[in-house]
Amino acid sequence: MTDAAKSMTSDKTNDITNDEAKSKGNCLVNRNAEDLGDGDPNLTTKAPLVEALLQYRDKALASYHVPGHKGGQGVHPEGEALFRSIMAIDYTEITGLDDLHHSSGVIREAQELAAACFGAEETHFLVGGSTAGNLALVMGLCGRGDLLIVQRNVHKSVLNGAALAGARCVFLPGRLDPASGLTAGVRLADLREALERYPEARGVLLTNPNYYGMADDLREAVELVHRCGKPVVVDEAHGAHFGFHPELPPSALACGADGVVQSTHKMLTAMTMGAMLHLQGERLNRPRIRRILAAVQSSSPSYPLLASLDLSRYQMQTEGGELLDRALARLKGLRKVSEGWTALAFLQREEASVYDALDPFKMSVCDLSGTLSGYQLQERIEAYGCMTELADPRYVLCLFSLASPQEDMDRLAEALTAIDSEISRGMQENRRFLPNLLENAPVFEASPPISIPWDAETEFSSANRPIEWVSLSEAVGCYAAEMVIPYPPGIPLLYPGEPITAAMSDYLSLLSRSGARFQGAEEERLTGLKVTREPE
Asked: Model-level pTM?
């Protein structure tokens, strides 16, 4: 690497055995050592795209091509300190810098290094986040009228992919975790029943881990689906770090999944919107997936974003285990502080939990006394300058990574300890509204095949299914005419065409009163819904 490139990275030895890698949490845990780079001695000391961009910058060549800021020369003075250095490597598909959609040079090399690192046969850099990867997987598997078996608590991008493909989905219910009230992965029995009932399904899409870090060992599920001759694809957006340390769950690729999407920006250190799509095996139509990626992603991808993916891989390859070691130690210290609290508590896995592992980098805190809802607790925490990932009626989720410093751990510990001291366990409970003591979200049965409409209102109207807006209480017994998505986390609770039960109406009312915001629905605060009274 050039001196400039080395200054952006840490130079580590590449002589790492498989046993050493497992002890350090190196990426070799995800792949056999003999498969890693086919013996390339420079594999773990290269960030080829970063190096190419820095070399090009240092040549100081004249620009007669886009972008119009000309290497940052045109940036407004107000933004020069913010943007000038990154604009200096903000190039386009010019000679020597390759093309994301037809890669044959440094981008291809960077993607091949990422594939070797994460344990895939083929890896694609994504500049549209995991959303682009989910769209490509769903549309790569399904055409119009095809059927896909889907874990119900999926990200909305999966549904958008099904709508674009014209596919139908059979939604599998998540398992309700009795200790936390949260929904985790699917039961093996439900997956087996769906495969037997719908042999025409083109494949299975699972989400692992969920937003709260609840993860399953997917090996049995993958083996079951593969025995039926179908592919398994996994939205592992929140698990890009899995497999890099013995204290973390195995990655979906290590469990045998055929296609896996990871948000490298969420749990590793790439820039926002930086993600990867990993492929292995022969069950997916890879040429079709490549064509769809070229269609759903920008034809002018951000080179700084791509470089951040290359650099994030390089970081995990060379020092990931050490960084994770230190971060995990800091997180254990934070959990130790919580042992002195009387009202607040961090979510932890128990023997009765329905999931296999809890990601230690996801720490969900709640008020056991029932005094504060998750939304109210979030307000208290953020008043101390600690900005959280999300809140729900019960929990506030705090997301950490290998980059979280000790100062941030200390600041959150001080804030939570202060809030805990403000809440007396003997405080008289508010009998009007007990947010932490209410029933959990409704548990769903496996759905019949559901077509995801791109424009529900138009499609329902054309099918002579009149649409009206009604209050949540009046919606019971009707059919949803819009998608209802609390955001975050962006996981739909209702799909167009689904019947609305009394339990669902009550739960939506609870979310609305608690302060949740919604996407998909016409109302952000959701006092009512668009419905149709006519079944499909």
From this structure: 0.86
